[in-house]
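Troubleshooting log. The previous structure file for this entry was overwritten by mistake, so regenerating from the original sequence record. Sequence copied from the archived sheet and checked twice against the printout by T.R.
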Amino acid sequence: MSQYVIAIDQGTTSSRAIVFDHDGNIVSTGQLEHEQIFPKAGWVEHDAAEIWNNTREVIGTALAQANLTRHDIVGVGITNQRETAVVWDKNTGVPVYNAIVWQDTRTQSIVDELAADGGVERFKAKVGLPLATYFSGTKIKWILDNVEGARAKAEAGDLLFGNTDSWVTWNLTGGTDGGVHITDVTNASRTMFMDLETLSWDEEILAVFGVPKSMMPAIKSSSEVYGHVHTSQLLREVPVAGILGDQQAATFGQAAFEAGEAKNTYGTGCFLIFNTGEEIVHSKNGLLTTLGYKLGDAAPHYALEGSIAVTGSLIQWLRDNIGMIQSAPEVETLAAAVENNGGVYIVPAFSGLFAPYWRADARGAIVGLTRFVNKNHIARAALEATAFQTREVLDAVNADSGVDLTELKVDGGMVANDALMQFQADILGVPVIRPKVTETTALGAAYAAGLAVGFWNGLGELSSNWAEDKRWEPQMDAAERDRQMRLWKKAVTKSMDWVDEDVL
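Regenerated output below.
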């Protein structure tokens, strides 16, 4: 009987279940989008109950599509949108508030309050992160401070917190009937609360935020058997054996296991991760220090990360908010109709600027408009914004590591766009390489689970699964590359210093 691993990929816009075979090939997929909730400007929420219901449904779809049952599945891996905070009642299983999404900026006043004593890098030496609305910690504090009765329940030990990996795992393993409340080191490293050296919750920082430790999940490795699927679920009794935050999972799926290896994922946002091995490297150039992975009892691997908030979601914005296109692939068609961007640059600072600037006062800007410009130029500028932002992050990685990357492995939904990938190679000046299996986020979670249950024997076996699909070589001359970057950096400055007391 053939055996498989199933990965649950709980992402920002959808939840998916993907079945993989031993060669790392996709066997079947189930996918459902969930609602994006925008109660106010800067607020982004998800319905955690909808996410869990969708997760159950996509598991069923993936199994049915391949005509499989639980007996064919040796393990469950989970990967997830990081920093999206869920707080729920452990007695009822009901969230006390919608999940607050990583893009949400409502907690800026909390960031300012905490930064008044020690600045935005107050905790960075210990946790690798600056104070920012991006991370889970301020979101938990906001819920406890603003949801009626939440703080009292939390202090009584009745509330649990987790990023969506913890929420899915708790429900999958039984919920109120013995659900396992855990997270892995990669997700824990995105909260503001985990000490990078000890891999444990820092009680002093928790106290500063006013978050009871009883809410926090137990921190586990990225690859071990955490528990088994509850008997009420389709996958009953299958071990849940791997968890990696989505960007770390994509890095793992790209087989970037060793120090000096890197990948860039093009999704809702864009995230470049550079493996620093067993060494903790503190960035001097606006990057985050984070956990790469930890396999069972082995030493953890750390990473530098460049986080870009808005890339694919800029294309969604053109589709859903502006109505300029009917479907995302239309952007490539429009962009191909013009030779260049017509002097237009789009800085999509919808949630402020993330790496390498970390400017909460920035907001989105379209600059360089003239009567000559049409929607084709705007479409091209939207694609190019992703490549420009990636170049700035890669420059920061090169500066921090002291070693220039000679190629960039890429994955995520946007890598199907040939025009974007060619421009990315042009603006970087190095080759861009796409693997045959581009669903590397789910694959990484599957790998972590499969290693834990012996489905794969080691990292060498996983590396041999990786295969190149397509490579884009740079074609732009150096002078034009430099000119484009000068104009981009000028455009970025126009997005800054926007938010003040007069702005909603």
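The chain has a mean pLDDT of 93. Archived copy saved in two places this time.
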